[in-house]
Each structure stands twice: as structure tokens, then as C-alpha cells.
TrEMBL record:
It comes from the Bacteria. Residues 1-20 form the signal peptide. Pfam families: HTH_18 (PF12833), Reg_prop (PF07494), Y_Y_Y (PF07495). The keyword ATP-binding does not apply. InterPro entries: Homeodomain-like_sf, HTH_AraC, Ig-like_fold, Quinoprotein_ADH-like_sf, Reg_prop, Tscrpt_reg_AraC-type_HTH, WD40/YVTN_repeat-like_dom_sf, Y_Y_Y. This is Helix-turn-helix domain-containing protein. The keyword DNA-binding applies. Residues 749-848 form the HTH araC/xylS-type domain. The chain crosses the membrane at residues 665-688. Keywords: DNA-binding, Membrane, Phosphoprotein, Signal, Transcription, Transcription regulation, Transmembrane, Transmembrane helix.
């Protein structure tokens, strides 16, 4: 390098130091374009599950890192606070309630239903407050205190403190070591013993003549050894009260209002104000003031910071008066983004960074389509200055021209050949003769590949039309792991250039693109596990979003909001389900990985790849269709490194009820019904079998009796004279018996003769038989039932069938002729009646009778 070049570079370094900033805060914007309800942010806090709450002028916004959920209010949700004349304060109580104070107004949000508690007047009366609540506070132990009628009530009524003798207006309450500290607009702090409820002492932060300066508003935050307090009036003041020394200390005084205070565990205070914010190390007194804010890309923002908050992930949130939210995390921007504003080429619409090169002194040269720039870590200016071509060392110029060949193919240390295309990344493994191609669904940030680079750690870096992808190959399994980096981590917001990827001697990586380039230092790749487990945010039933407190198919599925739901029950036909979870990853959203398992369906964990998640990398959607009834457990894990799964597991118990016909009670009922049916069938079969046997038996008896009648008629005739010769007593008795039997036999004989006489008359009926026997039909019926246990019609039919059986045995007539001869009108009816009486068809009777004899 010649002397002129060295002087020129030294001049640039000196010039840049004039513009150097003392802070490296770079903020990302989150505003109405990303879903914030409006850009006037008033208050910020974080829920225990990691979600953020932003109170804007128009709404309550709940943010899960990807989406905003709004909680709307009506005039019925506002309760009048007569005493409170400050600005927005939000307290999160123990009952999952958010208490929101504004100037003379109080609202309450139930986080479990994500709705405002309407009619707070009724709510307070139910809790035993007969008089109106004048103000509300929360101490350091998250106990609510209600102020009314000169008394301070703890929410559980365990402590009541009379404040009627105190002077001034109560503005804040806090607690420490079983003592309650009350902060008044006079600048006094009054300490009470919570056990005895006695007043212990009172100490003012400033003299009485300064009371008018700081009397308007107050904000108290508990520190390690006391309380920090912001006070406002005609001036702004930041004070500290040491509870051990019982003394006040003024830390900061300004001529403008100080809006919001946050103090971390190291007693570092962050104070928002009308322009920018303060950072004060309360241990050593070091103060830094940032009146302007730098955004990603290099633009400067000058606005009022209405509120600020440090989340549990280490990120700083700034709420502005009209610019929405700003977010910064010290390790979020792994990449340094050198954007369009750094390039002094106003006459060119787009600056295209084409190549990088390094000289012997470690200086980096950046080539665009029209100029060459110098970059070094010592260069902290907001501008890159063009270096004339003649001042660029010859070897550097050669490298710049050589590396500008737009090569999008490399062979890595394994011998694998990687080739970038406009639609995917190709891989060829020569030893296995194996070809593969990767797309966004496999893990790429974008399918259009612009450059490929292998670093000294054997990682493959891919630049694309959107973001950068790092590929890591497992040395044992050769499984490829993808990690994506987008503008959330400091990469370009636009497209990268072909072949513009470079690794410096110290391991720093440079990636060039449209209107800038990205820089990654090797020590910026350390990842930390996510502090929160995945939060259940939404449920979809058959594609329809399920709202809490609403019935679907006459079933209340989620009585509470999704984040507070741990058990869900569905009916048997509500089994087309989609579950949505958020990773709560504000720091590095693109480095978010999920895995999940539905116990009872999935045999093992299912892992998702970055790019597969819809709309945002921090949102996971899990869908299951036609789930059978049963009990399941859905488990979800998150990580910012898909090779490490060391976080907590979110669990959701799911029950899909069986249809009524598959419930245990139904099975028992079906079993009982089966037993009843089987028993009924057996009983019916037994009953009719017995009846059939009885009928056959009666018919057999009838035949025997008819034969006996005929034999008895002959017998009586032959024995008649012998009966007449017996002694008179014996003769009288026998005659009576014989006469009785003879009368019955004579009746049956005559009835038999009448039927046989009219056997071929098909319409010979019971009426005709009764007339032939000189009897009425009822008498005939009773007589035959008494003698034969058969009705007259059955008596006639059986005689016809007996005659038919005799004719069948003779075998001289056909069945049709026999049918007509015995008085049946139909052969089918004759066959049916014959089979009922003899158990076989007429055609089978003769052969069956011969076999039986």
C-alpha cells in the first residue's frame, strides 16, 4: 500500500470518529403495518407466559411475536376514578386481571376471557365496597390496594390503614419486608408496618419549596435496596429512596417530563422522555442520553418515547407517541447491516454490491457496479466513502475482478458439489452418485440462490432473494440442518447479488446485495435457549376459528381463551382440528423451530422446518383430520437451534367423546338387549315347540278317542244285555254311568257321522254342523271344548285331514283329487294344514308312514 493510500485511509478514520455514536442501539419497527391497532403506544407490560401487552390510545393489544389480538372496550367498561389525575398505568393482578388506570378512569380486563369486566361498580359491591373506589394501587408483592373514604384496603381485607391524618394526595404504593410505603404528591414517603398497621416514619424527597415543581405525577419502581421514583411537574426528576438508610437521593433532573421508568436487576434504569430515552447506571451514576434512535437500515428516528419496557428475553421495547413500537435486542442483530444510506451514490437508483476483497492489513474493499468502497471495523461513520481506483492496491483490484465471476457452484471439503439455481439448491455426492435438490419446504429461506460459500467451520452459506441460509452437516449421520437469517437479524431487506459472498482472514463473513451488504462475525453465532415454552394461541374446528365462550354444535369448547386452556373436550364429530402455537421468540424469530407429538397418534416427535410455518416462523399450525374418539395429549417444544431441544414442553389434554352408541353405557345396554333378545328367542322357540307338541298330542288323543268311540259303540251293543241282568243297585249305578258315557259317545258319533257324510262339501261349516246336531253354535263350541278341547272348526278340519291321510295311504287318488274329496278348496291350503298336523307334506306322508312301520 502506498503512502498516499495510507494517508487517505487515516483521513477517513479520523473523519468517521467525528460522527461516531456512543451506542449501538438499532431498532426494528412494529406498527400498524404489522398489525398494531394504532401507533400511539401508551403502556407496555409482559404476561407470565411471555406474550406482550401494548396499550395504545385505541385498544389493548396482545402480541405473541407474530400476531396481534385486540380487546375492545365500550363505555360500560369504564369506571370513574375521582382522585387519580395521572396517565396510563397497568397492573397485572393475581387473578389474571389487568387493571388499567388513566386520567380519572379505571378499566379491568379478564385475560382468561380476553374481555373487559363490565360494570365495575357491581364488581366492587360484590367484594364488599359500599362506597365508590377513589383510586387503586398495586404493591411490589402484587397485592391490590383500594383507596376509598380516606382508608386504604388490601384486596383480601386483611389490612386496613387509615390515611385521614396524612397530608397531600396519595400517588403510589409499594412494599418491602412487610412494610408498606406510600408516596404522596408532596414528595413524602410514609412507611407503615403491615402487621401492626402503625405509621413508622415519614421522609420527604425534597424541600417544601420544590413541591410545586414535582407534584403532578409519580411512578415508583422497586430496586435492590429501595425504591426508584419518577416525578413530574414543571420539571422532571428521578429519585431513589434507600429503605435501609431512610434517605432520598436525586439522580436526575430535566426541564422536560420523564414518562416511564424501568429498572433491571442490576439497577440500570431506563427512562423514556419527550425525545429519546435515558440509560442510567444507578450504582456508579453513569448517564447516557439517546435523543435520536437508529433503525435497521440506518435511518434516524426523532420522536417522543411515551413508554418503555425490558422483556424477560432481554429485549428493549419502546412505545412512541405516533410511530408505533421499536424493538432492540443486543444479540438479535447477529448481522451488521450496511444499507443504502451508507453509500454516497445519490445519482444511482440501486447500489449493487458485487464483490469483496481484503488487503494485507485486514481492510475490506467493497465493489459496486460503479465504485469501490473501503470498510473496516474502525470505520463507524454513517457513510462509506468512495476510494478512487488508482488508490486501490493492485492485488486487491485483481481479487475484486476475479471474485466477480458470479460463480454459484462450489465443491466443499467433503467433496460434495453444491449448485445454486433460480429454483432451488442442488447437491451432488460423487461417492454415492446421489443427487438431491432443496427448496423452501426443506429449509431454504428462498428458492432463488445467488451465492454459495463454505466457511472455515465447514458450514455452507446460501444467499437468496430473501435472507441467508446456513447449512450444517452432521459429521456422523450426514443430516443437513438449516438455519435462516432474515432482516430481523440484520440481513438485507432486499435481494442478494450473484456470487457476492466472502470470508475474511479473521472469519468474518460478507454478503453483498442490492443497496447494501451484511456482515457476520464468527463470535455472533452463539445461541441461547428460548425462555418461554410455546403458547397455545388459536384453535380451528373444521377450518373455523373457535372463539372462547362460544358454543359450537351445542358444545362450549373453550370457556377460556386459548392461552389459559389446558383441557379441551369435543364431540365425536368435532374431530377435524387445527391447533396454533406461538414460540414467543422476539429476539430471533427466523431461528425458530418446532417439534410436536400427539400421544395416541404420533409414535415419535415430528419436527418442522423453517419456512413450513404459515405467515411467520414463530407460529406453528398442527392439523389432524378424522381423529377417532379417545383421550390424547398434544406436546409442543420450541428451540432456536434444531440440533438442541432443551426447552420446556407445552401440553394440551384433548378428549374426543365417543358417539352415544359407542359409550360404555351403550355397550352395557347393547349387551343387556342382546341377552334379552337371545332369551326371548329361546323362550319363544320353547313356547311354540311346546305348543306344537301339545297340539300334536291332542290330535293323537283325538284320533284314539274317535277310534274308541267306534269300538265302544259296538261293545255297548254286545254288552247291553249283560248290563241289564246285574242287581238293581249295581244296575242302577252302572246304567247311570253308561247312560252318561253313552250320551257323550252318541253325540260324538253323530257329529263324526255328520262330518263324514258331508266330507266332500267344501263349504260345510260349523253353523251347518250345529243345525244337523240340533244345537246352537255356542252350545256346540262348549260341548266340543269340554269333550275334545277343540273348537268345532278344528274338529271338522281334523276329520277331513284324517280322511285325507287314509286316502293317501291307499294311493289310488292324486293329491288334487284328495283335496277335493275331503272338502278343501285349495291344494296349497290343504298342504299347509296337512303339514301342520302331520309334520310333512302330503306327498311325503305315505313314504314316511311306511318307514315308521
Amino acid at each position: 500500500m502506498n503512502q498516499i493510500t495510507r494517508i487517505f485511509i487515516l483521513f477517513i478514520f479520523c473523519l468517521s470518529s467525528v460522527y461516531a455514536q456512543s451506542d449501538n442501539f438499532v431498532f426494528s419497527s412494529i406498527n400498524v403495518l404489522q398489525g398494531l391497532s394504532d401507533n400511539q403506544v401508551r403502556y407496555i407490560l409482559q404476561l407470565p407466559d411471555g406474550r406482550m401487552v401494548f396499550k395504545t390510545s385505541g385498544n389493548i393489544n396482545i402480541y405473541d411475536g407474530a400476531r396481534f389480538k385486540y380487546i375492545h372496550q365500550t363505555s360500560q367498561d369504564i369506571y370513574s376514578l375521582n382522585v387519580y389525575d395521572g396517565f396510563y398505568r397497568i397492573y397485572q393482578g393475581k387473578e389474571d386481571l389487568l387493571w388499567i388506570k388513566d386520567h380519572h378512569k379505571l378499566m379491568c380486563v379478564d385475560l382468561r376471557t380476553e374481555k373487559y369486566v363490565s360494570n365495575l361498580n357491581t364488581y366492587f359491591k360484590k367484594r364488599g365496597f359500599k362506597n365508590a373506589i377513589e383510586d387503586l394501587f398495586m404493591d411490589s408483592s402484587l397485592n391490590l390496594w383500594f383507596f376509598t373514604e380516606g382508608k386504604l384496603y388490601r384486596e383480601d381485607y386483611s389490612t386496613i390503614i387509615d390515611l385521614s391524618n396524612n397530608h397531600g394526595s396519595l400517588q403510589d404504593v409499594s412494599s418491602c419486608n412487610n412494610k408498606l410505603y406510600l408516596f404522596y404528591n408532596t414528595g413524602e414517603v410514609i412507611c407503615y408496618d403491615l402487621k401492626t398497621k402503625n405509621r413508622l416514619y415519614s421522609i420527604a424527597a425534597y424541600q417544601a419549596k420544590e413541591q410545586e415543581i414535582y407534584r403532578n405525577t409519580s411512578l415508583v419502581v422497586k430496586g435492590n435496596n429501595g425504591f426508584y421514583q419518577l416525578r413530574n411537574g414543571s420539571k422532571g426528576g428521578f429519585f431513589f429512596f434507600d429503605v435501609h438508610k431512610k434517605s432520598w437521593k436525586k439522580i436526575l433532573e430535566t426541564n422536560y417530563s420523564l414518562n416511564t421508568l424501568f429498572v433491571n436487576s442490576d439497577d440500570k434504569a431506563y427512562i423514556s422522555c419527550t425525545k429519546g430515552f435515558w440509560i442510567i447506571n444507578c450504582k456508579n451514576g453513569e448517564k447516557r442520553y439517546l435523543p435520536t434512535l437508529k433503525k435497521v437500515g440506518g435511518s434516524i428516528l426523532n420522536t417522543e418515547i411515551s413508554t418503555l419496557f425490558y422483556d424477560k428475553q432481554g429485549g428493549l421495547w419502546l412505545g412512541t407517541l405516533n410511530q408505533g413500537l421499536l424493538y432492540n435486542h443486543p444479540s438479535r442483530y447477529k448481522f451488521t447491516y450496511i444499507g443504502r444510506s451508507y453509500f454516497s451514490e445519490p445519482h444511482i437508483k440501486d447500489v449493487i454490491v458485487q464483490a469483496f476483497a481484503e488487503d494485507k492489513n485486514g481492510n475490506i474493499y467493497v465493489k459496486s457496479q460503479s465504485a469501490i468502497y473501503l470498510y473496516s471495523d474502525a470505520l463507524k461513520s454513517d457513510k462509506l466513502t468512495v476510494i478512487p481506483s488508482k488508490s486501490v492496491p493492485r492485488e486487491v483490484m485483481g481479487k475484486l475482478n476475479k471474485t466477480n465471476n458470479k460463480t454459484i457452484s462450489i465443491t466443499d471439503i467433503r467433496g460434495w458439489i453444491w449448485t445454486g439455481t433460480q429454483d432451488g439448491l442442488k447437491l451432488f455426492e460423487p461417492k454415492k452418485r446421489k443427487k438431491r435438490i432443496f427448496y423452501t419446504q426443506d429449509g431454504l429461506s428462498n428458492n432463488f440462490v445467488h451465492a454459495i460459500l463454505e466457511d472455515r467451520n465447514k458450514n455452507i452459506w446460501i444467499t437468496s432473494s430473501y435472507g441467508i441460509t446456513k447449512l450444517q452437516v452432521d459429521a456422523v449421520t450426514e443430516k443437513i440442518h438449516f438455519t435462516n437469517f432474515t432482516s430481523d437479524e440484520g440481513t438485507l431487506e432486499g435481494e442478494y447479488s450473484d456470487g457476492a459472498a466472502f470470508e475474511a482472514a479473521d472469519g468474518t463473513l460478507y454478503f453483498g446485495g442490492i443497496n447494501g451488504f451484511s456482515i457476520l462475525k464468527s463470535n455472533n453465532m452463539i445461541s441461547e435457549k428460548l425462555p418461554f415454552k410455546a403458547v397455545f394461541t388459536n384453535l380451528f374446528l373444521r377450518g373455523v376459528k373457535v372463539e372462547s365462550g362460544k358454543k359450537y354444535d351445542d358444545r362450549l369448547i373453550m370457556p377460556q381463551s386459548a392461552a389459559y386452556t389446558k383441557n379441551i373436550e369435543f364431540s365425536y364429530d368435532q374431530n377435524f382440528l387445527t391447533f396454533e402455537f406461538s414460540a414467543i421468540n422476539y429476539k430471533n424469530p427466523s431461528q425458530t423451530y418446532f417439534r410436536y407429538q400427539l400421544e395416541g397418534i404420533d409414535n415419535d416427535w415430528r419436527e418442522t422446518t423453517v419456512g413450513q410455518n404459515e405467515n411467520s416462523n414463530t407460529i406453528l399450525k398442527i392439523s389432524y383430520t378424522n381423529l377417532p374418539h379417545g383421550k390424547y395429549k398434544l406436546k409442543v417444544m420450541t428451540s432456536n437451534d434444531n440440533q438442541k431441544w432443551n426447552g420446556s414442553i407445552s401440553e394440551l389434554q384433548i378428549t374426543i367423546h365417543a358417539p352415544w352408541w359407542k359409550t360404555p353405557i351403550a355397550y352395557i345396554a347393547f349387551f343387556i338387549l342382546f341377552i334379552v333378545l337371545v332369551g326371548s328367542a329361546i323362550y319363544t322357540y320353547t313356547f311354540y315347540s311346546r305348543k306344537k307338541l301339545e297340539r300334536n298330542h291332542r290330535e293323537e288323543i283325538l284320533l284314539i278317542r274317535i277310534k274308541n268311540l267306534i269300538e265302544q259303540r259296538d261293545f255297548l251293543q254286545s254288552e247291553k244285555e249283560s248290563y241289564l241282568t246285574q242287581n238293581s243297585i249295581h244296575q242302577t249305578s252302572s246304567v247311570n254311568t253308561i247312560n252318561e258315557n253313552h250320551a257323550d259317545n252318541a253325540f260324538l258319533t253323530k257329529a263324526l257321522e255328520m262330518v263324514e257324510k258331508n266330507l266332500d262339501v267344501s263349504d260345510y261349516s260349523v253353523e251347518q254342523l250345529s243345525r244337523d246336531l240340533c244345537m246352537d253354535r255356542t252350545g256346540l263350541y262348549r260341548k266340543l271344548i269340554a269333550l275334545l278341547d277343540k273348537s268345532p272348526s278344528l274338529f271338522i278340519r281334523n276329520i277331513r285331514l284324517q280322511k285325507a291321510a287314509a286316502l293317501l295311504l291307499e294311493g289310488e287318488l292324486s293329491i288334487t283329487e284328495i283335496t277335493e274329496k275331503v272338502g278343501f278348496n285349495s291344494s296349497s291350503y290343504f298342504s299347509k294344514c296337512f303339514q301342520e298336523m302331520y309334520g310333512c307334506r302330503p306327498s311325503e306322508y305315505a313314504e314316511k308312514t311306511k318307514k315308521s312301520t
